[in-house]
Amino acid sequence: MTATTEKKDKVVNKEDTQSQRHVLSLVLDNEAGALGRVVGLFSSRGYNIHSLTVAEIDPINHISRITITTSAPLHVIEHIMALLQRLIPVRKVRDLTTEGPHVERGLILIKVSAKGDNRQEIIHLADQYEALQVDSTDKSFIFQLTDIPSKLNEFADVLAPYGIIEMSRTGITGMARGSEAF
């Protein structure tokens, strides 16, 4: 049961005023300036984007999907979604977080210092996370891991004591579970 308070004869759900992480998925026409309009909507209103992933999903019809991870109270997310839906190239907007079960993934590439006896320890750690070794030199490894954001963070934390030389991450991408299309 959620806590509520009375505010000017209106019931306000306290969860609606607390900032929460949301994964928004947009399908839109892949046209010049479309991404700029979406990002501009966020920046002009002071909304922060934690991650942003964009890719064309239908090259014949020139349709792209944008996945945006942001944090805000639910009423702000609903307002953002309404504004996004009104943008000309946007065909559909979904909040995967509130709609039900969904799958989300990100990718991390980590270059870690690997010398002497540490090499076997590092390989063992990467194996535990099912990370793919994509490069190896006598002084370093590069590992690739695709997983949920918390696992990517955990993997980076585990490798940190060995000396992360460089790291690169994608934004989150996701879709609703089940047999229905977007």
Please provide a written account of the structure:
27% of the residues lie in helices and 42% in strands. The protein is an alpha+beta fold and 182 residues long. Strands 7, 8, 9, 10 and 11 form a five-stranded antiparallel beta sheet that branches. The relative contact order is 0.18. Mean pLDDT is 90; it is low at 1-12.
Rounded mean pLDDT score: 90
| Major sheet characteristics | 5 strands, antiparallel
Order of helices and strands: EEEHEEHEHEHEEHEE
Structural class: alpha+beta
Proportion of residues in β-strands:
35-45%
Helix content: 25-40%
Dominant shape = elongated
CA-atom Rg in angstroms? 20 Å
- Termini gap: 31 Å
- Number of DSSP strand runs: 11
Counted by DSSP, the helix tally is 5
Which residues form runs of ≥5 with pLDDT under 50?
1-12
Summarize the structure.
With about 180 residues, the protein is of the alpha+beta class. The chain is built from five helices and eleven strands.
Helices and strands in order:
Layout: E1 4-7, E2 10-13, E3 20-29, H1 34-44, E4 51-58, E5 63-72, H2 74-86, E6 90-95, H3 96-99, E7 102-113, H4 118-128, E8 132-136, E9 140-147, H5 149-159, E10 164-169, E11 173-176
Antiparallel strand pairs: 1-2, 3-5, 3-6, 4-5, 7-9, 7-10, 7-11, 8-9
